[in-house]
Write a structure and sequence with these properties.
The protein has about 110 residues and is mostly helical. It contains six helices and no strands. α1 crosses α3 (about 30-40) and α2 (about 20-25) crosses α3. Keywords: Coiled coil, DNA-binding.
Length: about 110
């Protein structure tokens, strides 16, 4: 059950929810939900269905959810964002160079005047 708890915790983090948020949605206490995530409490089928519904999946999807698939998805997203960030950094450097060139040109015209 510990792997199920890890899957639930990962799904919760992906939604940006706190344990309190999920506990309220499941109508249970925060400690009770914490015990589900840590694997201390075994989850019965009705609670499992409730958790799966909360994360917009069915029980089979919840039980077979593989975080490596999610990691691959996020790795691809991370690579895309890294490329965009590098492009922006290049753009910023180019703009900084233009500012320096304009400053030097302005300084040069003041010296000549």
């Amino acid at each position: 059950m510990k792997t199920l708890g890890k899957k639930i915790r990962l799904l919760r983090h992906q939604k940006g929810w706190s344990q309190e948020d999920v506990a309220k949605r499941l109508d249970i206490s925060i400690p009770a939900f914490s015990k589900i995530e840590t694997g201390i409490t075994d989850v019965n089928l009705s609670r499992l269905e409730q958790i799966a519904t909360l994360f917009e999946m069915n029980v089979v999807q919840l039980l077979t959810f593989n975080d490596t698939e999610e990691q691959e998805k996020y790795q691809s997203e991370l690579e895309t964002l890294t490329t965009k960030l590098q492009d922006r950094e290049t753009e910023v450097i180019s703009l900084q160079k233009k500012i320096i060139d304009l400053y030097e040109e302005l300084r040069h015209t003041k010296v000549l005047a």
